[in-house]
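Hi team, as promised in this morning's meeting, here are the two structures we talked about. I've kept the exact order from the run log so nobody has to guess. The first one is mostly here for context; it's the second one we should focus on when we meet again. Sequence first, then the predicted structure tokens.
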Amino acid sequence: MSQAPRRINTQRSLNRPTEQRPTEAPASRPAPLQGQPDFFEEPSVPHPEQRPRPAAPAHPAPAAGTGRNGGSTPPPRRGGAHAAPSEPPRRRSAKPSAKPRKKKKRAPMWLPLAVTLAVLAVISGVVVYAAGMINRVEENLKPEENAASLVEEIQTLEEYKGDVVNILVCGIDYEDGRGYSSDGTNDGMTDMILYCQFDIKGGALRMLQIPRNSLVATKSRKITLSNGKTYSASNYQINSVALSNGGNVAALAEVIYDQFKLPIDYYVTIDMQALVEMVDNFGGIEVYIPHDMSFAGSALKQGYRNLDGASAEFFVRCRHGKGYSNSDIDRLNMQRYFYAGLFKRVRSMGVTDVINQLPLIFNNYIHTDMDLTTIAKMLVSFTRIDSANIMLAQTPVFMGVPNVGKTDSFDGYSCVVPDAGSIAELLNTYFRNYTGPVSAEELNLVTNDWPHGTASTSANVQFVGQLDKESDDAILSGDTDVAGATTTDGQAAGQ
């Protein structure tokens, strides 16, 4: 049985009570969203075959409360039973009945009218509500009016639009006491940088993790792009680019395009304060933990667990203790298991789940330059991509002097140095299918102005299908305390 982790630091900007609000689990999960446009439905492009998955057995609704890791018990899975087809209407006999029919009691004449009006009222109300909700969502998702837009030069070339969509996802972290901002209280660093490439033509999703402390500037704290434009990086690291340029995510996108030669069509920013609430709004997320974790009084046990918001925060933030000799790099590897669990949960989303997550938008936790139509397309398309075609990798880096596992420090800031040769190989293999190969020399990475070792980290290419298998193996072996846990193909724990 796992121990419920405590908050890592209650004085941080994630100012939430340590007590967990109980979440009631619905008796059944609503049907997934249907009827949305799909990026992958092109007449000339065959849709990749989906592997059939047997339906999970129905489970009784658990009582509200907290899970064994401090998380709320997740909603039960829907059973695979289908309603029996209705019988065809019987024909009336041509012969008159020998016995006189008993006259049925007629419903009041006003009842059909009342029912009709009630239905119309409900429909009208839903339409009005939905229209108003859409407007509110659109208004809240839009970046600030003065926010810079992505320049056209960094977007996907015109001849490949429709084949691939590239999105920069940034998790913005506000943590008291770092002192990177002008007022010395909150930093607003982009501590999670995830480059997502939707291969529409190939029916795949490829994601690239960029370590937050990757070197992007020289000792002048200035980044010089290939076109001569300059940007600031207050701590020499990539996570400070947006903040150092007025909170401009478009500046970070330009730097990534220039240094890594990766086109970017849209961006999404997520306040990391949203993590706890998102997980709790889902009723917890089931995640495989590959090894025991323990640091500063918080702990999680190896196995397939249901994590509540506080547990999930510890899981994705931890970078110390056993299994973290490479600190942030090992944390990136661990976060992939959370992504796998999150993807699995998103694939089962229903209308209620969507509504439950709306506060994240209304609290201004999420901003994007995508319109709602594009977002709907992306979401539906994502749910149709086989997990075997969802890939995760990270940019290889030199981790300081003299060995991997240590970072070099300048002026109090530790940095890792991009391995241009390994990065070029990674990009050419997985991310430049439509734009052609690029050499290490063509990448505008800062590699020579900082001391570093001779061994770099691995790109660690993994597919979500591999991560799902680890989860499935844990479930089948009984290494779980999640009631009613089933594998991705519907097998129950211990079978």
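And here is the second protein, the one for discussion:
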Amino acid sequence: MNLKQKYHLITNKRWNNKGTWQPLVISIVLIISLAIIHKAYWVSTTETNPEEVWENKKLIKNGNNWTLTFDEDVGDSITFKGILRTAPKFEVYKNDTFVPGKFSEGEGLIYSEDLYGKTMLNVSGMRILVNDDLSEKFFVSEIITIKATLASNISTFDNNGEIVSLEREGWVADTDDISLSSTKDNYFFSTELLILFGGLFLSLKRVEKLKEQTNLIWHLAKFELKQGIKSPRMIVLGVIFTLFIIGMGWLLGDLQNGDPESAFFVQNANGALQQLCFFVFFVVSLAAIGVSVDSFHKERQSNTLNILLAKPINRETIVIGKALGLSLVVGIPALVAQILGLMFMINAGETPATSGIIAFILCGQIMIFTLVCFQLCFAISARSGTDVVMYGLGMWLLFAVVWNLLIYAISFALGIDVTAEDFENDPKFQSIASHMGMLNPGYVYQFSVGLLTHRTLAIDLEGIPGWLILLALALWPITCLRTATKLFKKEVKG
């Protein structure tokens, strides 16, 4: 048997051993393939780099006669697909007004009376003037398609006392030329969700004695819940993180009424909700460590684990039951803290979108389950309670404290000046931060709430598409739970 045949044999054996979860694995592969097709569709049907078109504009200054043009190869009309980098009107209007007669090179236009009632959109770097007021019709980070036309005009402006004549080319569009990408994207998103749920359903059907195993899971979960919820450790942790979340909720609500020029100003209720997500993650991750620290170590010492293993119970059932029970131990007090924090935030500020509130609570519970499963991996593999605590604290320090420093370090290594003023608004830095954030369950929680706060899945959060955020939200707990199960099986087998 040659090396190739041996490799195929081992691969087939491993695949056959995953018989129960084969449909789910296949569905995930299909989803990734469909996402690639989705991306290829947009690449083939739209201009995918509007920023490049905008940066290639030429401003020629010849005395008092200036000319602003675009590359001749661009064409007179293009359908762009891009992300709204600023809210409508922000670049044309300043406090709902502007001073006519000034030239803005960044926007490629002269401020004039004709601009009133119009909107300047920044679509992935491309400035496009729309002949309408689009307030409350589109929002920051929404992915749109827009058919823009290249138009030219001649106008004048005062340049330090000299009258300059500007022959200008610029991109213009009408409201009917704009559409949310979700009009087409939702077909892809819906198909991907159906494939995921279909794969999950078929996998669950393959689980032997599913109803019996489900009852055992719930029995183990209730046992862990009764033991953990009334423990002094959890009572202390619950009181601490409840007070902390309430305090941060009130503060974030109050900051919405502060000075807009202040560094601590919170622009709106939806932004405050996303910031509250981080503080929930910050304290709840510690609680997950606290309740999971001796989940297996104590049972090893008391020999109850061997008694449990002697019964006809699936190994996955034991891990899932413990994970669910410990998640409820943290999740129930966290739910109370989330609701109280929201109430105080709303009382001090404004009310976030209803979809955002629902996402804040539900995604928070998913995040708690993920963290508990993550900590169970340490609890199973560690040989002592001290090791479990150290591993857990290391995880918390990495995800909740050190992660931003890692982002800064990697950004600096990639050539971004992290000491520059306002560097956090650099699109390259935001792209690095968001892509690294997919490897952090706390960031995924924030991204998910930010995504689901909006009315459509056609949202881009600093380079991360909506479908990928939802996929990460699902894969994080599945991966952590699967890893814990494999570690437990390996220990029992050993």
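Starting points for discussion:
Residues 50-173 form a domain with the OB fold (Dihydrolipoamide Acetyltransferase, E2P) fold (CATH 2.40.50).
The chain has two domains: 50-173, 210-493.
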